[in-house]
Amino acid sequence: QVQLVESGGGLVQPGGSLRLSCAASGTIFDIYVMGWYRQAPGKQRELVARITNGDVTNYAASVKGRFTISRDNAKNTVSLQMNSLNPEDTAVYYCNVEMPRGRYWGQGTQVTVSS
To answer: Which pLDDT tens digit goes with each residue over 26-44?
Structure first.
């Protein structure tokens, strides 16, 4: 079984920064892709950023230039550095991994950007 645990969420003022981390544990063979998604109440879950096992990254247009995704393959972790946060970034952020056996999701961590 694969388990993903996110950390680093919280309340931050506009313009501030947060760093999210996700650790994968359990039966790990090869993680193709690690990524972060977010979902605000009443809205569809959307991709924020992803990184492949070849270190190719993709970002949502709304976060490009502000967020940076990185992974540590040896530790099976992925992080999301979020700078210049806007109220529109408020959402529950979910870690996601893609493996040969399927896709897995974390429980989510709340990020709230407010004055």
So the answer is: 888 788 899 999 999 899 9
Q: Which pair of structure tokens corresponds to residue 6? A: 């996110």
* 8 A C-beta contact, residue 40 and residue 48: no
Q: For 64, which DSSP code?
A: B
The single-letter code of the amino acid at 1 is: Q
Place of tokens 């993709």: 58
| Chain Cα centroid distance, residue 60 | 12
pLDDT digits (tens, 9 = 90+) for 6-25: 999 999 999 999 999 999 99
Q: What's the full length of the chain, in residues? A: 115
* 81, two tokens: 């550095």
Number of H helices, E strands in the chain: 0, 11
Say whether 89 sits in a helix, a strand or coil: helix
